[in-house]
Write a structure and sequence with these properties.
Layout: H1 2-13, H2 32-38, H3 54-66, E1 75-84, E2 94-100, E3 113-117, E4 123-130, E5 132-139, E6 143-146, E7 148-152, E8 160-167, E9 169-176, E10 187-192, E11 197-201, E12 207-213, E13 216-222, E14 234-238, E15 242-244, E16 248-249, E17 254-261, E18 272-277, E19 282-286, E20 292-298, E21 301-308, E22 318-324, E23 329-335
C-alpha cells in the first residue's frame, strides 16, 4: 500500500503538460506564441467592464446637428422689375444693390453685389448667386430705395422681385442770431453715416435747405467741417418726404469790416478775401465797388486773412491778423498793390 500511494503521489507531481512522449524521444520546447494559444491569460482580478462613452454613442449623429441644409455649391438668381412712385420720371442711371440680409437666416452665405445701369432700363436679372439671405433695393440720385428681403433656398432659387424707389425728401431749418433775427450766410454741413458731406448756406431769412436727401442717419454741424461756428454736431434721423429741424440760435458773435485801397488810396473792387479763426469760423468773398467786405457771425478769436487782387502779381498779396470779440466790430483797413 505504501508503494502504491507513492506511485500516485509521484504521478501527480510529475504529470506531463498534456501528452506522453514515446520512449527515447526528446522533449521539444513549445514556441512561446503557441504556449500562449494553449493557455489563455487569466483576466485581471481588479478589472471591471468599462461602459461605452456617451459621446461615442452620439458620434454618428454629430454631423447631423452641425451640417448645413444648404446644398454645397448650389447657386440661384434674381430677376425683377423696378418702379418709381410719384410723378418723377424713372432715372436713366440707377444701381441695383444686393447685400447680406440684416435679419434673414443663411445671410453669412450671401454675396454682396452692386450693378449700375445707365440706359434707363426697368428690368434686371442677376445670376450665379450663392443661396442665402439677401436685402435687395434700387438706388438713384434723388430717390430712396425700399429694401426687399429675399431668401434664396432649395425650392426657391430663382425668385421674381418687384422693387420700388420713392423720391428723396428735403431737410430744412432756420438759424437765428443772438437777438433772434435771421442769420444770413451761415454755412451748414450735413454728414452722412458713410462719411459723405453736404453743405448749404442760410439765406436772407436764415433758412437752410437740403433737397433730394436720401433717408438715413446724419449729423448736422453749424459752420464748415474745418471751421465750425458751434462745436457740437446735432444727430438727425431723416425720413422722406420732409423734415424741419428746430431753430438754431447762435451766441453773440463778432464782425470784421475789411476795406481795401491801392497805393493812391483808391478803393479796390474785386479783391479776393479769405479768413479763418483759431476758434472756428471762416469766410470768403470779394470786395465791392467801394473796396469793402463785411464778414459777420464770427466767433471770438484771432482771424488770419489773405487778400489778393487778380490784376496784381502774387508778390503783392497781403496777409493780416485781426482780433475779433463777441458782439464787436473789428475794422481791417488794407493797402494793396505796387
Amino acid at each position: 500500500m505504501a508503494g502504491l500511494a507513492g506511485f500516485f503521489w509521484l504521478g501527480m507531481e510529475e504529470r506531463p503538460s498534456g501528452r506522453t512522449l514515446a520512449p527515447g524521444a526528446e522533449a521539444q520546447l513549445e514556441p512561446e506564441g503557441r504556449a500562449a494559444e494553449l493557455i489563455p491569460a487569466a483576466p485581471p482580478r481588479t478589472s471591471t467592464a468599462t461602459p461605452p462613452a456617451a459621446d461615442a454613442e452620439l458620434e454618428p449623429f454629430a454631423s447631423a446637428r452641425t451640417s448645413s441644409t444648404r446644398p454645397s455649391g448650389k447657386q440661384g438668381s434674381m430677376r425683377g422689375h423696378v418702379t418709381v412712385s410719384g410723378e418723377e420720371p424713372f432715372p436713366r442711371v440707377w444701381r441695383l444693390v444686393l447685400r447680406p440680409s440684416l435679419l434673414l437666416p443663411e445671410r453669412e452665405h450671401a454675396l454682396g453685389r452692386t450693378l449700375e445701369f445707365t440706359d434707363g432700363r426697368e428690368d434686371f436679372e442677376v445670376g450665379e448667386l450663392p443661396l442665402g439671405g439677401y436685402d435687395v433695393f434700387g438706388e438713384a440720385e434723388g430717390f430712396n430705395g425700399q429694401a426687399l428681403s429675399v431668401l434664396l433656398e432649395p425650392g426657391s432659387e430663382h425668385p421674381f422681385l418687384n422693387l420700388r424707389m420713392v423720391p428723396a425728401g428735403r431737410l430744412e431749418g432756420r438759424i437765428l442770431d443772438a437777438r433772434g433775427l435771421a442769420a444770413e450766410g451761415i454755412p451748414v454741413t450735413l454728414f452722412a453715416v458713410e462719411g459723405a458731406a453736404r453743405e448749404a448756406v442760410s439765406d436772407a431769412f436764415g433758412v437752410f435747405l437740403f433737397e433730394k436727401l436720401p433717408d438715413g442717419a446724419y449729423e448736422l454741424l453749424v459752420g464748415k467741417e474745418t471751421a465750425p461756428l458751434l462745436p457740437e454736431r446735432h444727430p438727425v434721423r431723416f425720413l422722406a418726404p420732409r423734415l424741419t429741424f428746430p431753430d438754431i440760435t447762435l451766441p453773440a458773435l463778432g464782425e470784421i469790416h475789411v476795406r481795401v485801397v491801392d497805393s493812391f488810396e483808391r478803393p479796390l473792387e474785386g479783391v479776393d478775401v479769405r479768413g479763418s479763426g483759431n476758434n472756428g469760423g471762416a469766410f470768403e468773398g470779394k470786395t465791392d465797388y467801394d473796396g469793402r467786405l463785411h464778414a459777420k457771425h464770427l466767433p471770438g478769436g484771432t482771424f488770419r486773412i489773405r487778400l489778393q487782387h487778380p490784376g496784381f502779381e502774387e508778390q503783392y498779396a497781403r496777409r493780416i491778423s485781426v482780433l475779433v470779440g463777441p458782439g464787436l466790430v473789428s475794422e481791417a483797413p488794407v493797402r494793396l498793390g505796387p
